[in-house]
TrEMBL record:
Coiled coil: none annotated. It comes from the Eukaryota. The keyword Metal-binding applies. PROSITE patterns: EF_HAND_1, KAZAL_2, OSTEONECTIN_1, OSTEONECTIN_2. GO terms for molecular function: calcium ion binding; collagen binding; extracellular matrix binding. The gene is Sparcl1. GO terms for cellular component: extracellular space. Belongs to the SPARC family. This is SPRL1 protein. It is found in: Secreted, Extracellular space, Extracellular matrix. Residues 25-81 form the Kazal-like domain. Its main location: secreted.
Length: 225
């Protein structure tokens, strides 16, 4: 099969032409496999798609148009009303996000104690220092005041989680810059719960070049140079 191991980007599928050569064509949204209810997604056009296959197939068919360029995956689940993010909320957002990232790493470390594989050996050694620190603020529904106090008092515990998340996202390509598609996996899963995440990432891009550099990312989270 000429299409075996032939890679096409999202929204496209491999097709063998009359000469037997493989090339990529747009996925027909109507031909996407049937999806479960929980697999639907919301596009930036505020339309609910049955699956990411349908969304990216639609985007591909609109390639070269303004609508196609602007269409992206907004968040997981069907479209719903997302309240606007206030200035106060966006200012408090890094506090919750830093705490969340730290706790995600703690969960990964605990899982690795039984079956290793989530974190690398180097990551485990860094996370172990945070995990074993008696002053660590354990997971919970903490007030903004407590989160701020803990960040100021135990600043060193929050640096690595912020760096770690950046490098988890910086994959295609690994260039110390985050583009929209690299941010999408994190954004898409959090928008329904953290409605400020879109505005937060927009404001992270200080020079408005549609790229978030490591320096900009750290600045957004209050990490010193």
């Amino acid at each position: 099969d000429p299409c075996w191991n032939f890679h096409c980007k999202r929204g496209k599928v491999c097709h063998v032409d009359k000469e037997g050569k493989p090339h990529c064509i747009c996925q027909d949204p109507a031909a996407c496999p049937s999806a479960k209810d929980y697999e639907c997604v919301c596009g930036t056009d505020n339309k609910t798609y049955d699956s990411t296959c349908q969304l990216f197939g639609t985007k591909c068919q609109l390639e070269g148009t303004k609508i196609g360029r602007q269409l992206h995956l907004d968040y997981m689940g069907s479209c719903k009303y997302i309240p606007p993010c206030t200035d106060y909320e966006v200012d408090q957002f890094p506090l919750r996000m830093r705490d969340w990232l730290k706790n995600i790493l703690m969960q990964y470390y605990e899982r690795d104690l039984n079956t290793s594989g989530i974190l690398t050996e180097k990551q485990r050694s860094k996370v172990k220092k945070i995990y074993q620190n008696e002053k660590r603020l354990v997971a919970g529904d903490h007030t903004v005041e407590l989160l701020l106090h803990d960040f100021e008092k135990n600043y060193h515990m929050y640096v690595y989680p912020v760096h770690w998340q950046f490098h988890q996202l910086d994959q295609h390509p690994v260039d110390r810059l985050l583009i929209h598609s690299e941010l999408a996996p994190l954004r898409a899963s959090l928008v329904p719960m953290e409605h400020c995440i879109t505005r937060f990432f927009q404001e992270c891009d200080g020079d408005h070049d549609k790229l978030i550099a490591l320096k900009e990312w750290c600045h957004c989270f209050g990490i010193k140079e």
